[in-house]
Amino acid sequence: MLRLPAIGSFTGDFRSLPPESIGRSDMEVQILSSELIKPSTPTPDEKKTYMVTFFEQLAPKMHIPLVYFYSFEGQGTIVDADKHEQFKKSLSETLSIFYPLAGRFAKDGLSVNCNDQGALYYEAKASVKLVEFLSQVSKNLDLLNDYFPRDIGEYNSGTTPLVAVQVTTFECGGVALAVCSSHAIADGFTGCTFISDWAAMSKLGTIKPLNYERSAFPTKDIDGIKPPPGGKTGAKYVTKKFLFNGSAVSSLKAKVVPGILHHPSKVEVATACIWRGLIRASRAVHGHLRPSVMSLTMNLRGRTPMRIPSDSFGNCYIEFPIKFMGEEDKMDLHDLVVLVRDAIRNTLTECEKALNADELFSLVFEKLKEVREIMHDDEVDFYWLSSLCRFPLYGADFGWGKPCFVTGDSVPAEMVALKDTECGTGIEVKVSVTEADMLGLEADPDVIAFASSVK
Q1: Taking the domain 14-204, which CATH number applies?
Q2: pTM
Q3: Per its record, what are the GO molecular function terms (predicted)?
Q4: What's 45's DSSP letter?
């Protein structure tokens, strides 16, 4: 689940935006038009108000960004207008199923007015070919920023769209489809499901409705949780990608296995490798070994005695810390793999003991409270750890083929984001940290040895 700073405010009529250009002069992105796409079928009166749960109360008030790149190879007869009309038509039909996403938050933030105001849709054009852009973005991930919708607004303003889309056409006819969905109502699972179902609607003309019954998780008093702190004052953040191919993952597992009793997953070994590199980088910057904590989110659907449906809409996750306490003799790769595995297993065990909503809320609340306390400790290095592994990102086929590349936005915060490679055997790790920490991470011997491609 991605954790991003809030996207800036926007005022005025979305449909009256003038064309504008953003980005580098040799890769200019021009916004051609914007409009609100409304559901194809009006939301029934009995569904006009969608009450949030305690999961939404605790969720960050920001948008989750994902961008899908399509080459449309062999589809030269499809003109830009046809692509946009198909995107908009299928989006309208999909919003009829995901009807809360077409609404607006009430100002108290405790409900969504399902008033069919629609999703914000930008049409844009890039003055570069897709293959050229992908070559450049592999060296400079900040170039991605121009392909996401901006200035969406505050989440509970009453006018801010809960979904914003930017479809950018390249000179070659390829397309970048960027979707920003409000984390205040949808977690990474719901956001990815929305996009994959939108693609299915475009290609097949039908999708299954989701489960919107959330009355088992009423709102609660959430006083006592600190807000996340701001970024480090004056720090310059950089974002780079580290690619562990299938062979590198196998080698990492072989190196780790002698020190542990279980067969590690690729997420565990890749996380341990990057985490140890960050711990070493921090030691070089500060002159001593510091405690280091990664905060991981885990989907709770199907993982509690309450039997939360696997197709449940909204937010339904728990965030918990994985702690390295700064001990020199606990820094081997297998030590960090064990820390990751044990934190996940122990949290799952605790979730399995939550027999009702009150017990589940207490667990989710206390874990998040612990995370926020750690975030405010200047003597601890803190990183958000996000994993989209096993999410069907590369299956989003709108009828013109699957995406050739999928990624999120670059972030000015300490974050480690994982996702499967397109082939599924490897793992891509995108890291956003301060410039000083990145220099140390890139020079780490294990990262150099196992990351077959460092961008």
Answers
A1: 3.30.559.10
A2: 0.89
A3: acyltransferase activity
A4: G
